[in-house]
Amino acid sequence: MKKLASHWQILASLVLATLTAIAFRGLFGGEAAEGSFVARAIEISEFIGDLFLRALKMIIVPLIVTSVISGIASLQGVQGFARLGMKTFGFYACTTLLAVLTGLLMVNLVEPGVRDGQPNQTIREAFEQRAGDASEAQKATVATASEKEGKDFFGVFKAMLPENVIGAATDNGQMLGVIVFSILFAIAVTRLPEGEMRTLREFFQAGNDVMITVTRWVMATAPIGVYALIFPVVYKTGARIFIELGPYFATVLVALAIHMFVTMPLVLKFAGGLSPLAHFRAMREALLLAFSTASSSGTLPVTMRCVQDNAGVSKRTASFTLPLGATVNMDGTALYECVAVVFVAQVMGIQLDFAQQFLIVTAALLTSVGVAGVPSASLVAILLILKNSGIPNADMAVVALLSVDRLLDMSRTAVNVFGDTCAAVVIAKSEGEKVLQAR
Ligand code: ASP
Q: Is residue 375 within 6 Å of ligand 1 at its C-beta?
């Protein structure tokens, strides 16, 4: 029997997990009593989901190091390297700006935090309730972030040059340092005498091949992992938040959809001369995994595989644009930050004038660069912007947003990953590579 393609398996798991979670809610109600059958099922599911995520994350550092070094140290690796870098950063900056502007436009048009021209009291009360009900872990996350207020704005530039590269590699949020170090290392490799250069090149190439095999093994468990990740999320979410925060959810999701299904396809078509449909098809597995895991870093091994194997981007371009993209290019996150901050301001009754909104746009652009590619990472950036904009009750609002974050997080992560893949194919095409050809 022919094996179902990987993206269909993941999609089937997603659907199955959603259906069983809804059925469980119908059978057992929304609240799982401690020690009950449902509570146990959720616990086991979360445990397995966590194992799957950990396995994906485990691959990241060796994969980044080996692929960046072997990609850049390859023949002609450094030739035109500065050009590649400029194009990549230019593409990232422009597309993230487009995303933020879409978010800003939508949140000003819909005004999800306003009702009859007044700050929406019901949402404010829901915020207070949600903040009260939030788990201790969620409250602690926000409290720690709150203490660090302000100091993180330029932290991302420091993170590029870690004092200790091994330390950076062990810290999930510090991938940027590992990438910069790997790039420097790769350039230095190309300066070695021929024999030594070949040895190192082959060593890292072989290491990269090994990591690709490991990725394949981990992805073989994806249907189970995705099921285990999604089941508890749907079970715990329920319909109430959609009623309470419906207009807010709709604003975020529509803005993300515009960016992913209108803006970026136009960019693919007109900046790259590429077929958006073919690109979507090539990226199916990565997009579904990004949606399921809410982690663009965790998805990186699969993103790299899809971009090289399905879209035909060279290893050199993929290994430069994608690890960098997974850490610094976050269209969905920047868009979300902007919507969330303006929404909270609306709920708190703060009128933001043009200059303040401009500052929020700039802050969303800058902070999205520093947000780690892990679940809910952008809430810290949102807290930072709210505080810097002088919006009251920021801590409470962020705890409340954190408690309803998962679905939005999954959606913006898919947009983040999609943005990275678009950069990879457009830049590869501009470098003369044959991408997205029917094969
Ligand atoms: N979860 C997102 C990502 O991994 C980051 C965020 O917006 O929280 O890309």
A: yes
